[in-house]
C-alpha cells in the first residue's frame, strides 16, 4: 500500500493565520486559515511546489477565474481572493464549508430519498448556471461537492473545466466512476450532457452508497469500471424506497448515448422537482437567474397589453375555475370597519378542497378566487396511501402565482377588498368563480406515454405504437429517432403510432415520444422504446 504523503508547508499569508490541514490533493493542498479582517475562517487551496509548470499554473488561474464568475450561486463555493504567496506558490482563498462533504457522507450513512432529491435539484441549478456561462465542469463527483454551514451542497474544483460547445477536446483529467462513456474513449469528446451524466451518477452514489458500476465484493479496477460504464445497463440502487420514476430518471440521464439523456442540467432539476411533487415532499427551488422554462408555453396576454404578456410588478388575482368544496363554507364573520382598524386581521371564509381530477380529461382541478374576495383555502390531502410515483394533483391559487402541492395542508389568505361572499356552496355542488381576467390558467402535469413498443415489418420498416394515459382534445405527439451521435429530428403526429422507414431502421431502432397538449405543454419525461 502506498504511504499517504505529508502535507506541504502552509505558506505565510499576510492578513491570515494558519490553523490546520483540511485536505490533500494531487496538485494542491487545502488549509484552514483565519482571516484577520473581516474575522472569519477560510479554506486556502495552495499549489504544490513540485506542480508549478506552466500548464498547472494556467489551470489554477482558470479555476480561480471561473469560480469567481460563478460563485454568486448559492450552490457553488465562493472565491474570496487569488494571489501568489511569498514562496512563489499560487493560492485561492475560498469559503470554508465546515460540514462533511458528500464524499464522506455517501459511504458512511444512508441518505434519505428526500435529501438526495434536494441535493440533486440544487446541484442541477449550479451546473446549469455554469453551462449558461459557457463552462463545463467535467469532474462532477461527490468529492467535489462540499457542504456549507447551513447544509447546502456547494460545487467546487473547476480545475479541469472547459468552455461549452460541440466537439470539446480531450480532458486533462477525470474520475472514472462518474465519467460518461464519451469521455473514456481514445478521443474523448463531450458537452453539457456529459455533465448531466456525472450529475446523475453523483445522485446515484448518494442513494446506493457506492459508485454506479461498482460491484460490491467484486473487481472494481479502472479497466473493469470502464467496461461496465461502456456496455452494462445501470444497476438498481438496491433500495425499496427509491421510486420507479427516480430510477428511470437516473437511467435516462446516464444513457450510453448522449442524445438520449436530458438535454440540460435544468431539465434534470425539473424532473427531480416533479418526483418531489409525486412523493408529496416540499419542492426545492431551482435557483437560476433566468428561471424561464423554454419548454413551457408562453404566458397568456394580460388585459390591455395587446399581443404581449404583461410584465409589471403588480399583484393581481388570477382566474377561475371550479371549486368542489368538501364541506360547506361557514358564514363570514363581520369585519371591523372603523378607520382605526383598517389593518386589523379579519376572519375569512374557509373552503376545504379535496384534490381531484376531471373524470373525463384527467386534468387537475384548480382553484380560482374572484377579485374582491377574502378567502382562506385549506387543501385536504386525501388518502396518503396513493401509489408511489403517481402524479399528484396540484392546486393553483392565483394571488402572486402561489403553487399549492396536494398533500400539504396550506392556508392562503387572499385580500383584495372589504367585500365578503354572502353564501356558501353545499357539499358536492359546483361553483364557478370568474372575474373576467383570464390571464393565467394553470395546467396539470402532462403524463408520459406508456406501452411504447416497436414491431419490425416484412419490408424492414418498424411500426411503433404507444398509449396516452390521459387523452385530451387537441393532443399531439412529438417523436424522433434516437441515435448514438447527433440530435434526433423531431416530428409532430396526431395519432399514437409512427413508422420508421426501412432506410432509417437498420439495426436496433429507438425512438422518443412526448405528449404535447393544445396549450403546448409537453411530457416532463418522454417515453423511450426500442425495436431489434
UniProtKB/TrEMBL annotation:
Molecular function GO terms recorded: ATP binding; protein serine/threonine kinase activity
Is this entry keyworded Transmembrane?
Answer: yes
Q: Which species?
A: Cellulomonas chitinilytica
Q: Which parts of the sequence belong to the Protein kinase domain?
A: 16-277
Q: Which PANTHER family match?
A: MITOGEN-ACTIVATED PROTEIN KINASE KINASE KINASE 20-RELATED, SERINE_THREONINE-PROTEIN KINASE NEKL-3
Name the EC number(s): 2.7.11.1
Q: Supply the InterPro entries for this chain.
A: Kinase-like_dom_sf (IPR011009), Prot_kinase_dom (IPR000719), Protein_kinase_ATP_BS (IPR017441), Ser/Thr_kinase_AS (IPR008271)
Binding-site residues for ATP, renumbered to this chain: 45
Query: Which superkingdom does the taxonomy of this entry point to?
Result: Bacteria
User: Which sequence ranges are marked TM in the entry?
Assistant: 395-416
The name of this protein is non-specific serine/threonine protein kinase
- One Pfam match, by short name? Pkinase
Return the Polar residues bias intervals: 418-436
Q: Which SMART domains match?
A: S_TKc (SM00220)
Give the region (Disordered) as residue ranges: 288-313, 417-441
Per UniProt, the keywords (alphabetical) are: ATP-binding, Kinase, Membrane, Nucleotide-binding, Serine/threonine-protein kinase, Transferase, Transmembrane, Transmembrane helix
Amino acid at each position: 500500500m502506498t504511504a499517504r504523503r505529508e502535507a506541504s508547508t502552509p505558506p505565510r499569508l499576510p492578513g491570515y493565520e494558519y490553523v490546520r490541514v483540511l485536505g490533500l490533493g494531487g496538485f494542491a493542498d487545502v488549509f484552514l486559515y483565519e482571516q484577520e479582517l473581516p474575522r472569519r475562517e477560510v479554506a486556502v487551496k495552495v499549489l504544490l511546489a513540485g506542480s508549478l509548470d506552466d500548464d498547472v499554473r494556467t489551470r489554477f488561474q482558470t479555476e480561480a477565474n471561473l469560480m469567481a464568475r460563478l460563485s454568486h450561486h448559492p450552490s457553488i463555493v465562493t472565491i474570496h481572493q487569488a494571489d501568489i504567496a511569498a514562496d512563489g506558490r499560487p493560492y485561492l482563498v475560498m469559503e470554508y464549508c465546515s460540514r462533511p462533504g458528500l464524499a464522506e457522507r455517501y459511504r458512511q450513512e444512508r441518505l434519505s430519498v428526500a435529501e438526495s432529491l434536494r441535493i440533486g435539484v440544487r446541484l442541477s441549478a449550479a451546473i446549469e448556471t455554469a453551462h449558461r456561462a459557457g463552462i463545463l465542469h467535467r469532474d462532477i463527483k461527490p468529492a467535489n461537492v462540499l457542504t456549507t454551514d447551513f447544509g447546502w451542497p456547494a460545487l467546487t474544483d473547476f480545475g479541469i473545466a472547459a468552455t461549452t460547445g460541440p466537439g470539446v477536446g480531450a480532458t486533462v483529467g477525470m474520475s472514472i466512476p462518474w465519467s460518461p462513456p464519451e469521455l473514456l474513449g481514445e478521443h474523448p469528446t463531450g458537452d453539457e450532457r456529459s455533465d448531466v451524466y456525472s450529475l446523475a451518477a453523483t445522485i446515484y452514489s448518494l442513494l446506493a452508497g457506492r459508485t454506479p458500476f461498482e460491484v460490491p465484493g467484486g473487481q472494481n479496477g479502472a479497466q473493469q469500471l470502464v467496461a461496465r460504464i461502456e456496455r452494462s445497463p445501470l444497476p438498481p440502487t438496491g433500495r425499496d424506497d427509491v421510486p420507479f420514476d427516480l430510477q428511470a430518471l437516473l437511467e435516462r440521464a446516464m444513457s450510453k448515448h448522449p442524445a438520449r439523456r436530458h438535454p440540460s442540467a435544468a431539465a434534470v432539476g425539473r424532473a427531480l422537482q416533479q418526483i418531489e411533487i409525486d412523493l408529496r415532499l416540499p419542492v426545492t427551488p431551482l435557483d437560476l437567474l433566468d428561471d424561464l422554462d423554454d419548454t413551457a408555453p408562453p404566458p397568456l396576454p394580460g388585459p390591455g397589453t395587446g399581443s404581449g404578456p404583461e410584465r409589471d410588478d403588480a399583484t393581481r388575482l388570477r382566474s377561475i375555475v371550479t371549486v368542489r368544496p368538501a364541506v360547506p363554507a361557514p358564514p363570514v364573520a363581520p369585519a371591523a370597519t372603523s378607520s382605526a382598524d383598517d389593518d386589523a386581521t379579519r376572519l375569512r371564509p374557509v373552503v376545504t378542497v379535496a384534490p381531484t381530477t376531471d373524470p373525463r380529461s384527467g386534468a387537475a382541478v384548480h382553484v380560482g378566487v374572484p377579485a374582491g374576495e377574502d378567502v382562506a383555502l385549506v387543501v385536504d390531502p386525501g388518502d396518503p396511501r396513493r401509489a408511489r410515483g403517481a402524479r399528484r394533483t396540484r392546486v393553483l391559487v392565483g394571488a402572486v402565482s402561489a403553487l399549492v402541492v396536494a398533500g400539504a395542508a396550506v392556508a392562503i389568505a387572499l385580500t383584495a377588498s372589504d367585500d365578503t361572499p354572502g353564501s356558501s356552496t353545499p357539499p358536492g355542488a359546483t361553483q364557478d368563480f370568474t372575474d373576467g381576467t383570464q390571464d393565467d390558467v394553470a395546467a396539470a402535469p402532462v403524463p408520459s406515454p406508456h406501452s411504447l413498443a416497436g414491431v419490425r415489418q416484412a419490408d424492414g420498416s418498424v411500426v411503433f405504437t404507444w398509449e396516452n394515459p390521459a387523452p385530451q382534445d387537441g393532443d399531439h405527439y412529438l417523436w424522433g429517432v434516437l441515435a448514438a451521435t447527433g440530435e434526433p429530428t423531431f416530428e409532430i403526429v396526431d395519432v399514437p403510432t409512427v413508422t420508421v422507414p426501412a432506410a432509417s431502421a437498420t439495426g436496433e431502432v429507438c425512438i422518443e415520444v412526448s405528449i404535447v397538449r393544445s396549450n403546448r405543454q409537453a411530457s416532463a419525461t418522454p417515453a423511450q422504446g426500442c425495436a431489434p
